[in-house]
Amino acid sequence: MTKRGAQSGFTLVEIAIVLVIIGLLLGGILKGQELIVSARVRNIADQNSGVQAAYYGFIDRYRQVPGDWPATNAAQAIPGVTTGGNASGRLDENEGNPWTEALALWEHLSKAGFIQGNYVGGSAAPSAAETDKAPRNAFQGFLMLFESDDYADAGTRPVRLNLTLGRGIPVNVLRELDVKIDDGLPLSGVLRHALTTGATFSTNDIGHSTAACVDDSADPDIWDIKANEQTCNAIYVY
Question: Looking at CB atoms within 10 Å, which of 167, 174, 196, 197 has the fewest?
C-alpha cells in the first residue's frame, strides 16, 4: 500500500482563526477612527465654551466689550494692550474694517488672562504663517467672534454675535458636533453652516465654508457626510 500524500492548504480552523484576527483588526481600526473624531469634536466644543466664558467673564470684570474697548482706555486696566475699538458697545466694523475689533478681542482676552496665548491685534486678515493674531481650531482654521449674519439659515438672518469655528473642519466632525450640542441640522439651532460666499471675513476664506458640506436636496438640509468634504466651517450663534 502506498501512503496518501500529505494534505496542503489551511484547515477550516486555521481559516476561522485568521478571519477572527482580521475582524478584530478592522474593529480596532474603526474604533480608533471613531475615538479620533470624538476627540476632535470635544476639542472644538471645549474651545467654543472657553471663548464664550472668556467673553462674558471679561464683560463682567471690566464692564466693557473686549475688542470694542478703545485701546487707550483698555491699556489703563490691562497692561500691554495696544489695539481696541470704537466703544459702540458691540463687536462691529471700525471705520469700515471688521478686522480691527475682531482681532483686538483676542488681544484683550489674552492680556487680561482669560484665554491662553499672547495676541497682538491688527487691522488686516491674519495669514497662515501668523500665530499671534487669533486662536485656531485643531485643523488650523482661525476663530473669529463678531456681530454678523454670516451663518446659513432657511429664512432671514438677523445680525447676531457669533463665533466662526474656523475653516478646515471635516464635515463628519461638524455633523457629530451638531448632534452633540444642538439639533444636528446645518441651517437651524445655535450651530450653523458658514456662508460659502460673501462672509465678513472672506479674506483668506477665514469665514467661508464649501457648498459640498451641506446636502440641500434633503428637507430639511442635512450635513452631507457622503461628500466627505474636509474644508467645512461652521458658526456658533450666541
Answer: 197
